[in-house]
UniProtKB/TrEMBL annotation:
Name of this protein: DNA repair protein RecN
PANTHER family, per the entry: DNA REPAIR PROTEIN RECN
Homology family: Belongs to the RecN family.
Residue ranges of every copy of the RecF/RecN/SMC N-terminal domain listed in the record: 1-505
Lineage: Bacteria, Pseudomonadati, Bacteroidota, Flavobacteriia, Flavobacteriales
Entries under InterPro entries matching the protein: DNA_recomb/repair_RecN, P-loop_NTPase, RecF/RecN/SMC_N
A Pfam entry, by short name: SMC_N
Keywords: ATP-binding, Coiled coil, DNA damage, DNA repair, Nucleotide-binding
UniProt key word Transit peptide: no
Amino acid sequence: MLNHLYISNFALIESLEMEFSKGMSIITGETGAGKSILLGALGLVLGKRADLSSLKNKDEKCIIEAHFAIKNYNLQAVFEANEIDYDDLTIIRREILPSGKSRAFVNDSPINLSVLQNLSQYLLDIHSQHQTSELAEDSFQLEMIDAVANNHKLLAQYQMLLKQYKKAKKEYNQLTSDKADLIKEYDYNSFLLNELIELDLKSINQEELEKQLEVLANIETLQEHLDKGLAILTEEQYGIVANLKELKASIGKASAITSEYNELLERITSVLIEVDDITHEVEIKTENLVHDPETLFQINQKLQALYALQKKHGVLSVYELTEIQTELENKVISVDEFDAKLAALQTEIEKLTNDLQQIANQLTQKRAEAAPLLISKILEILAQLGMKNARFEYENVIAKDFLPTGRDQIQLLLSANTGTNFGPIKKVASGGEMSRIMLAIKAIMSKYSKLPTIIFDEIDTGVSGEIANKMAEIMYDMSSTMQVFVITHLPQVASKGDYHFKVSKSVVNGTTVSVLNLLNDEERILQIAEMISGDNYSESAINHAKELLRLL
């Protein structure tokens, strides 16, 4: 329930801080005193959008902070679902900055408005005479019947399956579409894949092939150069080997005379060994040069095919072509695999359809059983509120598809007076009748739901006398299971509350401000007397007020 409210710099309110208790609290005040401002402030707590016009002083920020005691309302799962830290005393704060930006916090953690709006529906319901239009909405009527039928767990199970069903259907439709597109490309992809398969990319070493091609294409030139080199090395009189041997012999003789030439001899010997080795290597390479036009042709053909495919696919390496081949293989194979995947999804969809249908049938049955009970309770309360001849009919059309709440498309039809035809509530009920029907429904729902707090904003407008008294009794009865606030102009209603707050307006330092005060017993008598006969209330009005408050 709402047990603390702080408002600063909002509309006509400079600063306000109030404590509230369980039971039924009355809020009264003259028109324009600021009752709507209180509702506006609470609206911000519920996640409504704000603007700079809300600020009393445009240079300072506006703060609205509400404390909710929610220990007994099992809301931990709601907080967890919205990723908010839970606390038995939950604090919601809204701030509107002079820049126009708005911030929201729950238990000091910043949140966005959509999360706040989702959370607030579990904390507070503000109902005014202008909001009876929701009564005509099929979704609201279905919500009422589900509350009476205790369909909460069944609906949660249904909606979980519906989520899976929609996901499977979406995947099935996407696969079907992808398969159609893939089939269109199948022939082309197969052609591209076959080109790559025929080339046998795994067997190709592009760098090695290019080296072989370079050798085979220039084998005559290579033969000429190697032969010339070998001649330079091995010519009998003037070859490098012969000259090195002669050089070694001469220096060897000098070295025999003096050791001074030993190192030089060693170096010449080393060079001679190296040149001998080079000569041997050149001879081998000369012998290995074989003119092979067939191999040259084959290598050239393979490389030309490789270059063509690299150009076609816009790549430069065999590795990149291999990746493209793998991708094409997956696309071609996917066409064959799609049927298996589609068949598996079809089986899953059929099972989910059967499961959903079973739960939808249970919902339909439970709603059909709950509707007469709900109608009976509504009519019982409406009879107390002067609508003794009202009658309701329950109408249900089963939808072809699965809806978010089952397959039921229900509607409550109303005949407000004897002899009149049944019709949609919004078409056959007057504004006053809509208010009374809504009050009856809210009273019934308070027995089935655990909403902590409800605020009735002048829902009793247009009624008086005994009907007003009955409305007050109904709202007071609701306060036994939830916290109830009632904004009213009627003394009969005002006298029923456990607490009475008055909103008033005054001028302070040349500025109009609104204040909210909790009235004591004496102040309450005078306030109700004023509501009965105006500012110049008489002694009889005071006595009447005491009678209403049962103080006489």
